[in-house]
Design goal:
heterodimer; A: mainly beta; Immunoglobulin-like; 7-stranded mixed β-sheet; 5-stranded mixed β-sheet; 5 helices; 27 strands; 12% helix; B: 5-stranded mixed β-sheet; 10% helix
């Protein structure tokens, strides 16, 4: 189903969007040097990266813009979920990769605008890198096609990055943000494993309620302990029972206590449909009056959370776009250890999430291994975990020896709902088979 | 950003600038009393507090009828921060100067064993009747951060503003601390300390109380859903949180929340949840090491020389609770030199040596491709100014690194429907050469 403004408004917006698109494609092609410029020194050899093909250099390109996503209810008995207008990010291939034009061809900027507009995902694409990686994270502001009246810049805030610089912290008041039709490349040296999150920090109450939120985590160097073999580096020696190339850990624990077999990022969030509809219809936005009514894990309500496939939504121009690519269905074999990388990016409230029948072992909080100053394990077992916006936890669940289905769900029971519909919302399944 | 919002925020801008100018002027004019920032408050052992009515200012231009404590005749929100030394017998006399319709009032001191004298019996403690007084006394046995608040009709009286913080300093600072310590423990050394007292305001309750204040009482504000529209840090809503402490622009809200430090320093955060909602207080820039909750130091069970609290990037402030935490920053491991040094340049104090002389690994976009924050100096380097388009920047005269500290329930970073505002302030990490006097 397609969300409609009233007819006259819709046609005006469609026309504006088309002009907007054409404008940028034209600019992209005609400009001598485009402002859309993905910086990725890999293989090129630079002053600080003299070696070519350094495997520790990771590059990623995100388009920041708008799009539509689908909620999990039967909206107004249409047989389909409520279409929700969002701002968010979409991942784009680097120049010359996966069918993208090369930089030298001059076609990449126009292609970026064409691919990036109305392509936003909820949640935003997951950023997963390894400790010691250098991340060149390029973000192009492709504009909000359905809101041509807006001139908003965007940023990326790596939430929780230790010893952050103001320059790459993404707070627009404190540093720089990027205007429409241009790219800003953020640089991060990932020196601390853990579960973080990222979001746009421009007009944070608005852009975050609108959905510019994503999973971000850093896997520890202990996973590579076979190749490091340096006892002076935390995680540089292998814990007992380490299996080369197989064993994976949440942290540099030194004792294997955070080993896992399968990992799932679980981002808690919630949307206020009145806010999103007001934004789509160019109305004043309710800030203090925000009341979230769709309760989500990775951008979906139950039962969509257990759909293993990407969800698609028809955008207002009639094109079907991938909207919610991340399933929250948690699958494991009997006896396996599941790592849940849980973060809350709701802008309105704390949530308590818990399990039925399985014990959650909390091994990390806010991207730090739970240890006291003397090195004692401070992990704890629980059936309910309360996180406010901007908090994260690493939870390991050891599955039982027999097959079965369990639930991971909010214990704020009224929020097991997709707006007016009971039985849904912030819940997913843990299937042992 | 809608056009509507834009016009509002533009109108707000001159106020914001004047507040910042006040801050800068005060830094310049006031002779430094100490070399380190101390939390402003009342010291001693005997306090004479008066509960009375008044108005506080909100950064969207509104003024809100409130109740607060005073110790000098000017009602303030939050109440005076009471700073006492460990072991002191603290005596607090409370005078009830609230409107008669408000009825009795009282104070409770969570975390302390209190004895009372005079006053009249109330539900949970002795109360001061209208026009009367009551005296409380306790021994401040344990260092740490505490709060005090009304113990009479707390749902109404705390909402109206009858709350404040208590700081108990250790009788002997820990050995080895060059400036001060939060507890008698060397892991609690700090160079500067700041208070972050978080509360919220539901305007409906304040308006109902105002309308009934001159009536016979008791004041009835109903018990409907609590829907705050304003969120406060130390009694102020952003951007007023960043204006100077004691500014005459905010006579009833003397405390600010502007935070400043140098690289390599440790600052002590005293986070107080004084309202009825939980708030996730996010410290941009780095993790904070939790020292204590509710004035109780958290130590390792096997080695009491070590801390046991977690490292958090978001500190949950729970109603009635306090958290003490240490924050530090040097710019370690960024992969580039934050001072923009050439390799041959001398090192700055606390500079992260492996990054000395390394350029920023990416090229920044052209000026026309970027938007700039008021706290951006125009240069990516600490303590350096760069060129900015006309009208940009200007709020960060020493070109420090600026970080937003705020409730990560972003809905609370507004003043009613105007963003930004609310429960938000800035940390400025100043270059080593900048003298911090406030």
């Amino acid at each position: 189903m397609k969300l409609q403004r009233n007819i006259s408004m819709n046609s005006v917006i469609n026309l504006s969007s088309t002009i907007f698109l054409l404008l940028f494609i034209t600019l992209g092609v005609s400009a001598q040097e485009s402002s859309i410029n993905v910086q990725c020194p890999k293989g090129t050899g630079t002053l600080i990266h003299p070696g070519a093909n350094n495997p520790g250099i990771k590059c990623m390109h995100l388009a920041a813009g708008d799009g539509m996503v689908t909620m999990a209810d039967n909206y107004q008995n249409t047989g389909a979920g409520k279409p929700m207008y969002v701002f968010s990010f979409a991942e784009l291939p680097l120049p010359g990769v996966d069918g993208a034009p090369t930089e030298n061809s001059g076609d990449y900027p126009g292609w970026v605008m064409d691919q990036g507009m109305l392509a936003a995902n909820a949640p935003a694409p997951t950023i997963a890198i390894d400790e010691d990686d250098e991340l060149f994270l390029s973000m192009t502001n492709v504009g909000m096609a359905m809101r041509p009246d807006l001139f908003d810049p965007h940023t990326i805030h790596w939430h929780g990055f230790a010893e952050a610089s103001a320059l790459f912290d993404g707070v627009p008041d404190a540093s720089i943000s990027i205007n429409m039709g241009a790219t800003l490349t953020y640089y991060y040296q990932a020196k601390d494993a853990g579960t973080y999150m990222y979001h746009c920090h421009v007009e944070a109450a608005e852009h975050m309620q609108m959905g510019m939120l994503g999973n971000l985590f850093v896997r520890p160097r202990q996973n590579r302990c076979d190749t490091i073999n340096d006892s002076s580096i935390p995680g540089g020696i292998c814990p007992d029972g380490h299996i080369s190339g197989v064993s994976t850990y949440a942290y540099n624990d030194g004792d294997g206590s955070t080993r896992y077999d399968v990992e799932y990022p679980i981002q808690i969030g919630s949307f206020d449909p009145d806010f999103h509809d007001a934004s789509f219809n160019v109305q004043p936005l309710p800030f203090a009056g925000m009341r979230d009514r769709y309760f989500l894990l990775n951008g979906r309500g139950y039962p969509d959370t257990v759909n293993p496939n990407a969800l698609s939504t028809v955008d207002p121009l009639g094109n079907t776009q991938v909207s919610q690519p991340i399933s929250s269905l948690i699958s494991a074999s009997p006896g396996q250890r599941i790592l849940l990388r849980i973060s809350n990016l709701s802008v309105t409230q704390f949530y308590t999430i818990g399990t039925s029948g399985l014990t959650m072992n909390v091994v990390g909080l806010d991207a730090r291994l739970l240890r006291d100053g003397a090195g004692n394990n401070m992990n704890y077992q629980t059936n309910s975990l309360t996180l406010g916006g901007g908090q994260s936890a690493d939870v390991i669940i050891t599955t039982p020896a027999t097959a079965g289905t369990y639930f991971l769900y909010t214990k704020n029971l009224d929020q097991l709902a997709n707006d007016a519909e009971n039985f849904g919302g912030m819940m997913t399944e843990i299937r042992i088979n | 950003m809608t056009i509507f919002k834009k016009s509002i925020s533009n109108r707000k801008l001159p106020d914001f600038f004047s507040a910042i100018v006040v801050l800068v002027l005060s830094v310049t004019l006031l002779a430094p009393a100490t070399v380190r920032a101390m939390i402003i408050g009342e010291t001693g052992s005997h306090f004479n507090l008066t509960a009375s009515e008044g108005y506080i200012s909100i950064a969207d231009g509104g003024s809100i009828y409130s109740w607060g404590y005073s110790n000098n005749g000017t009602m303030q929100l939050p109440g005076p921060t009471l700073i006492v030394d460990q072991g002191t017998t603290v005596t607090i006399t409370l005078n009830n100067n609230l409107p008669a319709a408000a009825g009795n009032t009282s104070i409770v001191f969570p975390g302390h064993q209190v004895t009372t004298s005079s006053g009249v019996a109330g539900q949970i403690t002795q109360e001061a009747p209208v026009g009367g007084s009551v005296t409380y006394s306790f021994v401040a046995n344990t260092p740490g951060t505490y709060q005090y608040h009304s113990g009479t009709r707390p749902d109404l009286q705390i909402e109206m503003g009858l709350y404040g913080a208590i700081i108990v300093r250790p009788s002997s600072p820990a050995v080895g601390c060059s400036v001060a310590s939060a507890y008698d423990h060397p892991k609690t050394c700090y160079d500067r300390e700041y208070l972050y007292l978080l509360s919220e305001i539901d305007i409906d309750i304040h308006e109902a109380a105002q309308q009934q204040a001159t009536g016979p009482g008791p004041i009835d504000v109903g018990s409907g859903p609590f829907h705050p529209e304003y969120w406060l840090l130390n009694g102020r809503a952003a951007p007023d949180t960043m204006a100077s402490a004691g500014t005459s622009l905010l006579p009833n809200q003397p405390y600010n929340a502007m935070t400043r430090m140098h690289p390599g320093e440790k600052i002590l955060l005293r986070v107080v949840g004084a309202g009825r909602d939980m708030h996730p207080f996010h410290t941009h820039g780095n993790h904070s090491q939790v020292l204590a909750r509710d004035g109780r130091l958290l130590l390792s069970a096997t080695d009491s020389s070590q801390l046991a609290g977690p490292l958090l990037f978001t500190i949950p402030a729970a109603p009635g609770g306090t958290v003490d935490a240490i924050f530090g920053w040097t710019g370690k491991d960024l992969g580039w030199d934050i001072y923009g040094h050439k390799p041959s340049d001398p090192m700055e104090e606390h500079e992260w040596a492996p990054d000395h002389g390394k350029p920023i690994p990416v090229e920044l976009p052209s000026l026309s491709s970027m938007a700039f924050g008021g706290f951006y100096s125009g240069s990516p380097f600490l303590g350096a100014m760069g060129s900015l388009p006309p009208g940009e920047g200007g709020l960060n005269p020493n070109a420090g690194y600026a970080y937003m500290w705020h409730s990560h329930t972003e809905r609370e970073m507004v003043n009613n429907d105007v963003f930004p505002g609310g429960m938000m302030t800035m940390l400025i990490i100043e270059a080593p050469s900048v003298v911090i006097t406030e």
